Q: What sequence folds into this?
């Protein structure tokens, strides 16, 4: 019979973190006829005397992995810096310990120059989400993240607030007609879009990237699962903005959030695996494996990452162009900013690679959009160029509940109630994206007053998200 044992159970037996846990879970997932208690006993015995299980039909792979692990020496790994520089943190009182610990490990990398933690930070893989890390001549695939180049894009229309409420049905119709969601979903035949990004020569860089082109074409102009969205809302400028040339007032706006779809996720997985093989770090830091920017592999990843970023931007451009034509509206301003990316920047007089995983550029005068949740406001902001934050700001409110926690603790009636109270119409989305799963955006914005100035406030009114329970891809 199948036994219910998870990674935490195996760790508590004394197994080391890492791939050995995965091997044990794989053994446990097979129907080997053991009860839960019998499997736990077997795991204990293998841990204590792995040499007795080298030829065992079920546990041999686990036994060999344990023996190999016991023979590892510190000199087999790249040494971490035990006296790292301090990192800047914003809103630290509301950031979970897991994210702080991940940032502390990232600061110990021998290539790390500086770091910062944004107020929306929470635990991720490798670098925490909301983490900013500047490195010297090195690129970390998991410092960029899985959804490479994920971004926010905003179009502010010459449509007054009242027109939206008088024509909500039309906006809903166009939103459904001109957006598509979900992991693996895309367009086919005559419904495919074309864009110059498909002619990018980087697609011919190597066979691996070239094989991603067909999927990229199919998904061009689509949005992913998870927290990705396309939504209409009201953008309020409390005063004239001379830079954008928009007078004080309330306007209808379109806000989109998604990334490089399956192409970006495949690139991330491929080069992370390579980085781990090339850059052997201690277990605690293994997800921060990096590639030398002077190496062929480092340059390959850099080019693939930039291609994925350009592709993500093209997806948003297509959605916004479709909506502009459908509405027959004039766009007063367009703003786009991305996270899950790495940039070459000058910091303290030297060129560094700045990784922003779930954090956005906020250099002096740089525009950005920081969303809340489907019922909380988002903010159009202008960066202040704060050097201690490595010219960065948060990319949103940040989660305060994991997806699993949200599904367990939030009911459909609670979610419907909060949507009704805020006058928000929702198409799709599961309980894992309920507003209560996110931090208070106002608290997050207060913690980064030194990083950005607020230019305008966006209030969501009509939100579409994936409805198939899929995660970001």
A:
């Amino acid at each position: 019979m199948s036994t219910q044992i998870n990674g935490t159970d195996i760790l508590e037996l004394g197994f080391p973190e890492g791939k050995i846990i995965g091997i044990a879970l794989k053994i446990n997932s097979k129907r080997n006829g053991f009860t839960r208690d019998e499997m736990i006993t077997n795991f204990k015995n293998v841990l204590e005397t792995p040499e007795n299980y080298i030829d065992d039909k079920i546990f041999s792979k686990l036994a060999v992995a344990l023996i190999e692990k016991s023979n590892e020496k510190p000199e087999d790994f790249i040494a971490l810096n035990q006296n790292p520089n301090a990192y800047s943190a914003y809103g630290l009182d509301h950031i979970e310990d897991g994210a702080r610990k991940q940032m502390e490990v990232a600061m110990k990398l021998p290539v790390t120059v500086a770091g910062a933690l944004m107020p929306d930070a929470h635990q991720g893989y490798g670098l925490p989400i909301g983490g900013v890390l500047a490195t010297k001549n090195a690129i970390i695939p998991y410092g960029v993240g899985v959804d490479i180049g994920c971004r926010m894009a905003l179009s502010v229309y010459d449509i007054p607030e009242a027109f939206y409420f008088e024509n909500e049905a039309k906006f809903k119709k166009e939103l459904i007609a001109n957006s598509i969601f979900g992991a693996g979903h895309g367009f086919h035949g005559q419904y495919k879009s074309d864009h110059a990004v498909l002619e990018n020569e980087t697609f011919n860089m190597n066979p691996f990237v070239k094989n991603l082109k067909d999927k990229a074409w199919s998904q061009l102009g689509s949005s992913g699962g998870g927290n990705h969205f396309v939504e209409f809302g009201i953008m309020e400028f409390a005063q004239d903005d001379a830079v954008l040339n928009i007078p004080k007032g309330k306007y209808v706006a379109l806000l989109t959030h998604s990334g490089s779809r399956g192409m970006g996720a495949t690139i991330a997985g491929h080069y992370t695996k390579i980085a781990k093989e090339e850059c052997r770090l201690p277990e605690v830091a293994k997800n921060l494996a990096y590639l030398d920017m002077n190496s062929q592999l480092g340059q390959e990843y850099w080019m693939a990452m930039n291609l994925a970023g350009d592709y993500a931007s093209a997806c948003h451009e297509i959605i916004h162009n479709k909506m502009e034509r459908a509405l027959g509206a004039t766009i007063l301003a367009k703003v786009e900013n991305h996270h899950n990316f790495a940039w070459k920047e000058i910091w303290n007089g030297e060129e560094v690679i700045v990784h922003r995983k779930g954090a956005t550029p906020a250099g002096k005068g740089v525009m950005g959009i920081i969303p809340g949740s489907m019922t909380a406001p988002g903010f159009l902001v202008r960066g202040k160029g704060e050097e201690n934050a490595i010219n960065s700001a948060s990319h949103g409110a940040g989660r305060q509940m994991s997806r699993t926690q949200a599904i367990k603790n939030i009911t459909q009636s609670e979610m419907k109630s909060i949507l009704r109270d805020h006058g928000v119409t929702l198409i799709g989305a599961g309980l894992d994206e309920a507003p209560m799963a996110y931090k208070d955006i106002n608290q997050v914005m207060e913690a980064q007053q030194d990083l950005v100035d607020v230019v305008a406030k966006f209030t969501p009114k009509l939100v579409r998200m994936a409805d198939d329970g899929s995660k970001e891809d």
